[in-house]
Amino acid sequence: MAKTAGLVGLVGIGATGCSTDEVLRFGWPVAVTPQGEQMRELWTWSVIAALVVGVIVWGLILWSVAFHRKKSEELPRQTAYNLPLELVLIVVPTVIVAVLFYFTAVTQNDVLKKTGNTDVTVDVIAFQWNWEFQYPEHKTSDGQTVSTLGTSTEIPLLVVPAGQSIRFNLKSTDVIHSFFVPEFHFKRDVFPEAKKNNQDDAFEITSIDRPGAFVGRCAELCGSYHSVMNFEVRALPKADWDKYINLREQTNDKTGKAYTAAEALAEVNCPDWCSPLATTTTPFNTDRTAREASGSGNK
């Protein structure tokens, strides 16, 4: 029985085509930050612990069904107390909860820890239904803060350096939104400026482990266009980031204005993955007259 169950399990895992790493992530995306990897490890071991408990419970149920089913009309021997079993049922769950609480608290403290001394600071401003990313430590030639503003014609790009610590300061200009980059494994609600209930409007990541492009989303239902309130992340190597942010501080001779995010990325000449325009999503049309009610399209 046990061999058959084990064989079925191995065949099931093999049939999925998943690697060991994918299996142990239990559906979570690959983390690109140390904090994300810490949370992934907590998730993995929590699920394994739950599966172990589940297997034991399932085994006891099947054992009871197989060996303690009704065999005659004779009433089985009645047992009033079983002190050792009762102690086990109290002690073991208490130990499991205590261990999970400990590792959860340790991970939470590490993930939420703020040093106040990061390499880059980004102010994230959410609004219905787009994003603005400001770099308060960098100014344009006319003294304005370097910023990237999403519009109904362009998806905003959050450009940051890989391998450096980053602080994100979050705020909303209207309703509650939520800043979420799955590869960061960190989702933080973005509240209007008035703080309530000890709201924490900032978080830090130690570094982004590798250059790459990632998709960010609003993960809090915030109105009509919530589902298309996306942005994209470009994590550049340090040298390319320096070129990018230096360009953002300068005036583009072709336009006579400060470089936009797309213009600066185009000048950096980084690999294909850091396209100067969004590649995974498209801007949404806010013109209500351009849309039709469901079911009213042309036949």
Compose a concise summary of this entry.
The protein has 299 residues and is of the alpha+beta class. It has helices at residues 2-16, 20-25, 34-67, 83-112, 238-248, 261-268; strands spanning 120-127, 130-139, 145-149, 157-161, 166-172, 177-181, 186-190, 202-205, 212-218, 230-236. Helix 3 packs antiparallel against helix 4 (83-112) and helix 5 (238-248) crosses helix 6.
Total count of strands: 10
* Alpha-beta content class: alpha+beta
Find the CATH topology of the largest domain.
Immunoglobulin-like
Termini separation (Å)?
A: 59 Å
What's the CATH class of the largest domain, please?
Mainly Beta
Describe the structure.
With 299 residues, the chain is α+β, with helices and mostly antiparallel strands. The protein folds into two domains: 84 residues; 153 residues, Cupredoxins -  blue copper proteins (Immunoglobulin-like, Sandwich), CATH 2.60.40. Helices cover 35% and strands 21% of the residues. It has six helices and ten strands, in the order H-H-H-H-E-E-E-E-E-E-E-E-E-E-H-H. The strands form two sheets. It has a five-stranded mixed sheet, with no helix packed on it. A five-stranded mixed sheet has the order 4-10-9-6-7. The radius of gyration is 27 Å and the shape is elongated. The relative contact order is 0.13. The C terminus is likely disordered.
